[in-house]
Amino acid sequence: MTLSTHHWIVGPGALGRLIGLRLATSGSLVTLAGRRPLPERQTLITPEGTRLDATLFTTTLANLAGTPDVVHLTTKAYGAEGAHAALAPRLPAGTPLVLWQNGFGCQPRLTARHDGPVLCATTTEGAFVEGDDRVVHAGHGETLIGDLSPSSNAAHGELARTLASALTQAGLPARTVDDIRRRLWQKLAVNAAINPLVARFRILNGDLRAPRYRPLVESLIAEVAAILAAEGIDPPEGQGAPGWQALVWRVIEGTAGNRASMLQDVLAARPTEHEAILGPLLDAADAHGLQAPGLAELAAWLRQRELAGIGNCC
Ligand code: PAF
Questions:
Q1: CATH number of the domain at 6-178, please?
Q2: Is the CB of 74 under 6 A from ligand 1?
Q3: pTM score, two decimals?
Q4: pLDDT at 1 (0 to 100)
Q5: Which CATH architecture has domain 181-307?
Q6: pLDDT above 80: residue 239
Q7: Which of 68, 76, 162, 250 is deepest in the core (most CB within 10 A)?
């Protein structure tokens, strides 16, 4: 991947636009595709308050044409497989695909299905959009990239390293990992303990510290921890006190003022990523004969809200 690498970014939400604008302002060619075309002139506000302007090619998924060097799928988790199905027939065989979805649902399925190397990425970068032509990079984070495929090979490793270095040069620090499955589950665990609850009660992350919510959070973390222990997934090391409880409370503290992504979806009457986040946990609980009543109740509420037509419910 060189400076002139052509990146297609499919899914122009906050993350897709952040990646696209960062790559474009560091010299890469970027095409941004979504359901509707966005303005070609886009502005990125950095966490330091600097304004960066860039011109991207913008188009719709239906009108995408050409030969990308790499495709980044940055849709919501529930849109990834549909977007891939629409895209795949138009891609030259062997086109590398990078999956940026939350949770752990579409990644193994698309890794098996895609005709080319597939990498998964997980990031703690924070961003939000302001209108159609502006994205605010709200906070620096880190991106981890790895290969889920059992037939992982040296070429995939090289691709992951090249991509990590392109992102790092573009201002999104990234590194390769050889345990991306574990990393995706770790992020899923934190999301599962925070997102459904704040969406259910329409509160900021930091409100979970109140005595009214604290026991709920603690019991959800305990359910998540038991499931992950059965799956053989440990919490990440080296980030303060060990254990899932400590990790989740650290994230709550660090993001106290955040309106979490699932709450934003609920407030905007959009579908949520509950299937990708809670689904794998509930499936794993079933497989290991574990009870997870708190997670199951939140999943049922989120499902019900969508069945009831989202905006009409709750
Ligand atoms: O989904 C989100 O908003 C974030 O992953 C998290 C960690 C819950 C913080 O808001």
A1: 3.40.50.720
A2: no
A3: 0.93
A4: 59
A5: Orthogonal Bundle (1.10)
A6: no
A7: 68
